[in-house]
Amino acid sequence: MLNTFDIVTTSWWILGLIYLIDFTVRLWLLAYIPKNRKPTAATAWLLLIFIVPLYGTILFFVIGNTKLSRVRLRDQKYITRLFKKYTAHLREAGLIAAIDTTHEGSAKLAESLTGLAPTRGNTIEVMSGYDAIIRHMTMKVKTASHYVYVEFFALALDETTEPFFAALEAAQQRGVAVHVLFDYFGSKKYPRYREMKKRLSAQNITWHVMLPISLRPSKYNRPDLRNHRKILIIDNTDAYTGSLNMIDKTYHRKDSISYIELVAHLQGPSVNELAAVFASDWYSESGEALGHFMENSTLSAKGSQVAQIIPSGPGYPYENNLKYFVTLIQNAQRSIVITNPYLVPDESLLNALISAALRGVTVSVLNSEAMDQWMVGHAQRSYYEQLLRAGVRISLYKKPQLVHEKYASIDGTIALIGSSNLDRRSFELNHECTVAVYDKVVAKKLAAHHAEFLTRSTPIQLKTWLKRSAWQSFLDSVARLTSALQ
Asked: Are 45 and 90 part of one and the same domain?
């Protein structure tokens, strides 16, 4: 039987061993975390680990890796090689567009990052609103004769989306190949989730959830990696992508917030490129290779606009969307118009925006008064002072609606429409998709749309902003620090 001295001695040995293990792990993390990680993110992680040693260390091992599992990284390399082969196929068909010198470098950068090049012969229609967009999508699904690809971060069965689901079922019944993808966490929190899955299966519609949780080491992804893309393809003739999720505009929230969305309706070779992005996600989730996008790529090349599809996500070695956005902003000469619900820039994007404003470029940013994500809302407000001091114009769309649209117009010559927010989550953790339209008509239309929103917004003045409470400033600073934990 142990006496008191032995118990005390054993306790000290155990405590000493725990301290030694903890010290060794933290010393190793001190060398490991900054490797291939942005200084801001590395500093935030190390600060958390040294302030809250045990919990900070555990959290890092759970969500500290921003890249996909080994299996998915291998699949992404294979997918990128296929994209390059498909681009070569389009080049042989004469569908790859020549870009003028203004944006030639940006287009080459995007092709190098993704394997997808700008195509000519497209028609791009910008659609804003909500219910009208869903009705338009539903109408196109009703005309499908070959295939329908459906991919949404949030897919929900409700009164608004019921006609869309009915159209998918009717298409399946008449022999159309219907493939459906939806994000696991992005969709499962909404009402009737189980009913939706059962209904799809009952109609023999093939579906998969994206990025489900797996604890197998070779397939483990940090649980908050998400597929945030919104894509709909019909028969190689029509495609939609943008900010719209297939769900009621209230997102079934209990507060008064409702959402305003924007999508690009594509016709032409860009449809096939977008279908290739869907096919890559389908392959990642099912192991099945779809080939619809390889067929009939020239049938609808009747438009006059040039478009380039830019997928991004943690499967790529670089932040594709961030690098492309920053390059465009750095090259801007006259105007930068940005509408986006979440602006939490990393250092490169922040410096690009500030530098553009300081060299005389008109930079206008539209966010919303309504905050549907508390942490992100406060984090983005922590950057307002720096941006305002540089001359960036920031306006907040009045409550209760939240402008969820995600687009930019640069110099009235190029337009960007997609699913990507301007924050670190969209740059590093989410699968996103953007369409770049090298066309003055579309770029100017988006700039005019932005100007219309400004009439229902409140501009932020630096003097007024500096007078907000110390408590609000504190919350913004804490949220900013937390946003760096990537």
From this structure: no
Please write the tens of the pLDDT for every residue from 88-99.
888 888 899 999
459 touches 358 (CB < 8 A)? no
Separation between Cα atoms, residue 72 and residue 287, nearest integer Å: 11
List the one residue out of 371, 372, 369, 366 whose CA is nearest residue 340: 366
Coil, strand or helix at 398: coil
Report yes or no: 269 and 95 within 8 Å, Cβ to Cβ: yes
**Which distant-in-sequence residues (6+ apart) come within 8 Å of 274 by Cβ?**
231, 233, 239, 241, 266, 309, 433, 435
pLDDT at 329 over 70: yes
Average pLDDT over residues 252-267: 96
Q: Cis omega (within 30 of 0) on the bond before 400? A: yes
Do 343 and 281 fall within a single domain? no
**Beta strands of 145-298 (E only): which ranges?**
147-152, 177-183, 206-210, 226-227, 230-234, 238-242, 258-267
CA distance 177 to 308: 26
Q: What is the pLDDT of residues 354-408, one digit of tens each?
A: 999 999 999 999 999 999 988 899 999 999 999 999 999 999 999 999 999 999 9
Return phi, psi of residue 64, to 5°.
-80, -20
pLDDT value, residue 64: 65
DSSP calls for 314-379? TTSSS-HHHHHHHHHHHH-SSEEEEE-S-EE--HHHHHHHHHHHHTT-EEEEEEES--SSHHHHHH
Residues 134 and 237 in one domain: yes
313 within some domain: no
Please indicate, yes or no, whether residues 337 and 479 belong to a single structural domain of this protein: yes
Burial class, 152, CB count within 10 angstroms (exposed 0-12 / middle 13-18 / buried 19+): buried
Q: Does residue 155 carry a pLDDT above 90?
A: yes
Q: Which residue range(s) make up the domain with 179?
A: 70-102+123-303
Answer yes or no: is 115 within a domain.
no
Q: Do residues 54 and 129 share a domain?
A: no
Structure confidence by residue, pLDDT tens digits, 265-303:
999 999 999 999 999 999 999 989 887 777 665 556 678
